[in-house]
């Protein structure tokens, strides 16, 4: 022990006692299309109802979150959490190109104000996977003037974020969105660039560049609001090389996530969204280890992945501040969710003690909600939702997480 340092304080002066810094954001996340319901002007609504749809089921009424947001923010606040990440649904705000809904903009402004009334800090995402039908039909992110259109939308929603919002995420998981296109469009998948060893495709350079340009255009617009922190969120996996496969792991990760992290250099923050690890051998990704616990969607149950993901983000961005904007587990056993949260936060605190600049943690998700192609089967939520009555029920894992957030301190191991 160094002279002048307590037994729980690091040589860099960091607090290694399991206590998080004051001002740390303790939150949960949601997304418009996944909870609001009735998002009829969006591209996903159209695809969900198309003949031969690849979706397990349509989103339908979802969690009726568009009308029940007050209850949801109240539940979050009642758990002792101090931040709520939600998204503005572009297709509600601009259902037809160039025609903006004043009512929708006012609605999202009321959500911001409602958060403050309940002592909750709002974190707003401008685009969370879905886009208006007209935007997809006009070529999606690689279409003509896509960045101009996104910048115009950003300008339209400035009234939502111009007061009382500290952080705005421009585009949610651009890397996941680009990969999801292959699941939604087999013809596009056939034209995709193969990955290492002929494995799964990677986002094409044109798509990647288009998303980066759109993000930067949105940041330019948001910079007009004094004090507003701007960034985007990246879908991250803790890539762990085995058998000396460090170079293979780096080559695998670069087009899938690291190039999107590099684009966050110079931003006010970057959102890291991580759920599991992926072992990388000399020839690419390896199967989940035999006998390992897996989640409802087949991922390895590995809470410590969050630490590897934020360390990598800090390295790639050169120290851009980090928000863990999504982290969670799909499981029907809520005791495993409570365990996951505690272990993930313990690992995250370890990375912070090493000097990684993490400013907040948001669990995915606040509610059991629509999980894209998989429908409502996977349950990530801290709160369950009755699919018929929309009744919300707080799970024990939510209270366990709230107890940590309320004190800012991890339980003794």
Could you please describe the fold and organization of this structure?
With 413 residues, the protein is of the alpha/beta class. It has a single domain (25-405), classed as Alpha-Beta Barrel (TIM Barrel). Helix content is 39%, strand content 17%. It is built from 15 helices and 11 strands. Helix 13 (305-317) packs parallel to helix 14 (334-353). It is globular and about 55 Å long.
Keywords:
413 residues; alpha/beta; TIM Barrel; 8-stranded parallel beta barrel; two-stranded antiparallel ribbon; 11 strands; 17% strand; disordered N terminus
What layout of secondary structure does this protein have?
Elements: E1 25-29, H1 32-35, H2 43-48, H3 65-78, E2 83-87, H4 90-93, H5 102-117, E3 121-127, H6 133-137, H7 146-156, H8 158-161, E4 167-172, H9 174-184, H10 186-190, H11 205-222, E5 229-241, H12 246-262, E6 270-281, E7 284-285, H13 305-317, E8 322-327, H14 334-353, E9 358-364, E10 383-385, E11 392-394, H15 396-407
Parallel strand pairs: 1-2, 1-9, 2-3, 3-4, 4-5, 5-6, 6-8, 8-9
Antiparallel strand pairs: 6-7, 10-11
Helix pairs in contact: 7-11, 13-14, 14-15
Task: Identify the CATH homologous superfamily.
Answer: Glycosidases
Oligomeric assembly? single chain
The chain-level mean pLDDT equals: 92
The rounded distance between the terminal residues' Cα atoms is 21 Å
Q: Using the coordinates shown, work out and report the CATH topology.
A: TIM Barrel
Number of strands: 11
**What overall form do the CA principal axes indicate?**
globular
Largest sheet descriptor: 8 strands, parallel, barrel
Strand order of the largest sheet: 1-2-3-4-5-6-8-9
* Low-confidence runs: 1-14, 194-199
Q: For the record, what CATH class applies?
A: Alpha Beta
Helix count from the secondary structure assignment:
15
Query: What percent of residues adopt helix (DSSP H or I)?
Result: 25-40%
Nearest-angstrom radius of gyration? 21 Å
CATH architecture: Alpha-Beta Barrel
